[in-house]
Amino acid sequence: MITLVLIGLLGGLITAVSPCILPVLPVVFLAGGPGVQASAGPPGGTRPGADRPTSSTAGDGPAAAGDVLVADPAPAVKVRNRRPYAVVAGLVLSFSFFTLLGVTIISALGLPDDILRYIGLVMLILIGMGLVFPPVERLLEKPFARIPQRQVNKEGGAFVLGLGLGLLYVPCAGPVLAAITVAGARGELSLDIVALTLSFALGTALPLLVFALAGRRVAERVSAFRKRARGLRIVAGCLMTALALALAFNVTDAIQRALPDYTSAAQKKVEDSDVARQKLSGLYDNSNKELSRCEDGVDQLRSCGQAPAIAGISKWLNTPGGRPVDLKEERGKVVLIDFWTYSCINCQRSLPHIEAWNRAYKSAGLEIIGVHSPEFSFEKNASNVSDQAHKLGVTYPVALDNRLTTWDNYRNRFWPAKYLIDAKGTVRYFKFGEGQYEQTEDLIRTLLKQAHPGVHLPAKTARQDVRLTKDRTPETYLSNLRISGYVGDPLLDDKPKTYRFPSKIPVNKLSLDGTWTAGYQYFTTGDNARLAFTYRAKNVNLVLAGKGSVTVLVDGKRVRTIPVEGTPTLHRLVDDSTARTAHLELRLTPGIQAYSFTFG
């Protein structure tokens, strides 16, 4: 039990500093308000005029710091504002309660799956309106007015705000949150699950509380906050309302996709350690235990047991007439199962690679099945999933695993997770989280050749020519911390800068010209943006997002112009018949995000 609590606590701490909680941080920061207020008189109220401090010497000007209130001889009492504690407590309570019991309650009452999300959005809008319009705020605080403690009505409003945020809180999902979500979805609540949930919630709360207290501190110390309190409340109210609308229309997803997943290594080290695997797996039964004997992400095929059935599916998308896909009927094909959920930013970033494999290898015998296993209740809505799948460019079959039956069959612990099944129905490889796309593609190709020895496979979506393994230009990330082979003006992190090409760009090196913003996850183009790369390969690919166009020149000759629009997608820039050394130049319109180069 103690080990499980520690795993939950550390998992919560890591989650609370991950990119996925960024949408709620502005509200948490602004929730504190002024930290200390003067209060005179006995508990229960003040006499008329008590709120007007008057100097003990009439007509001498403003009251001095040591003056008392004429309306009440009692000394001034400083009341500590506990709004930061109230908003974080409300968030943690709401998130914990509805993660564990939300599915059960909604099912019992026959309510729509996304009702909690809409309630949270409405609450956030009402709180925002309350900051702008005082009568609305008084209405929201009315339920707390009968409680006699000082300031409790104000703290009650903050607590309501926290409750609303808890319904909208979508942290990055790791094995700990996955275990909690699955237990809540099945209604299987044990003492271990409750302890894990509470420790995870406490770990999440601590960094958020520090952030809320920092907001209170700023409000207390900066005189501009005190002098312009009314104006700042209006600004805060407008920001909260804007956040609610952004969440409603999934605008925040694009921001989160753009941010690096800087906590993934720490999360995997804590939540996917041998001890954590043992403890979290012990929360469930021993069915399909063979899957646990294989490690994820290894660079070779292994026998991990027979592939469990895809079961408990409420609806199928992207199949003729919504017909189910039965794994038994797919014998003879290589099957890739991708567990994902549409609000998971890590899942969204992996989809362009999966869709590229679907286009390249479907005719060669690859069947890709997306198993949409929801993390939250609102992700069970079939219409929501269908709309988001369309926006994200998913064309292969998607199974709505709303009861997490298939998730449990595969003993899964991550979003996203990929399971590769051979033509005989045996799981041969799986990968948790993002990355290792080239390795996964290599294993897909190996299984396709084993299933159909005479099959003609198309060019790899990433790399192709085996003879160039040593000399071929390596995969190159456009990341200010991960980039290799860059030459030219020093990169400026996260701010626009105008660059100039050097006089010479050696083989396997790249450089920038024009205005670029070098970020951790991608580089963003500005005015007159160009990129030059001297490479050795047969083909060149680049993951691009945003909206605009890219003109491709090879050795000074214009080859093609590629339109770019939407989410990150792999684009083929060069596709020659033989490998060679060449000079690539890209001319990009402003507002395009460039992620990574791969070569074949």
Account of the protein in words:
This protein has 600 residues and is α+β, with helices and mostly antiparallel strands. Helices cover 38% and strands 21% of the residues. It contains 17 helices and 15 strands. The protein has helices at residues 2-15, 25-30, 83-109, 115-132, 134-141, 152-168, 175-186, 191-221, 223-227, 229-248, 251-258, 264-271, 274-281, 345-361, 382-391, 405-409, 437-451, and strands at 36-39, 77-80, 315-317, 334-340, 366-372, 398-400, 417-421, 427-432, 476-477, 496-499, 509-518, 523-525, 529-554, 557-588, 592-599. The strands form 3 sheets. Strands 9, 10, 11, 12, 13, 14 and 15 form a 7-stranded antiparallel sheet that branches. Strand 4 (334-340), helix 14 and strand 5 form a beta-alpha-beta unit. Mean pLDDT is 75; it is low at 34-77, 147-153 and 463-469.
Tally of helical runs: 17
Q: Report the span from N to C terminus.
A: 50 Å
Unreliable stretches covering 5 or more consecutive residues: 34-77, 147-153, 463-469
Determine Rg (CA atoms, Å). 28 Å
Number of strands: 15
> Major sheet: size, sense and barrel closure?
7 strands, antiparallel
Mean of pLDDT: 75
Broad structural category: alpha+beta
Form type:
globular
Helix content: 25-40%
Beta percentage is 15-25%
Question: Could you outline the blueprint of secondary structure elements for this entry?
Answer:
Layout (H helix, E strand, L loop, with lengths): L1 H14 L9 H6 L5 E4 L37 E4 L2 H27 L5 H18 L1 H8 L10 H17 L6 H12 L4 H31 L1 H5 L1 H20 L2 H8 L5 H8 L2 H8 L33 E3 L16 E7 L4 H17 L4 E7 L9 H10 L6 E3 L4 H5 L7 E5 L5 E6 L4 H15 L24 E2 L18 E4 L9 E10 L4 E3 L3 E26 L2 E32 L3 E8 L1
Parallel strand pairs: 4-5, 5-6
Antiparallel strand pairs: 1-2, 3-6, 4-7, 7-8, 9-15, 10-11, 11-12, 11-13, 12-15, 13-14, 13-15
Helix pairs in contact: 1-8, 1-12, 3-6, 3-7, 3-8, 4-5, 4-6, 4-10, 7-8
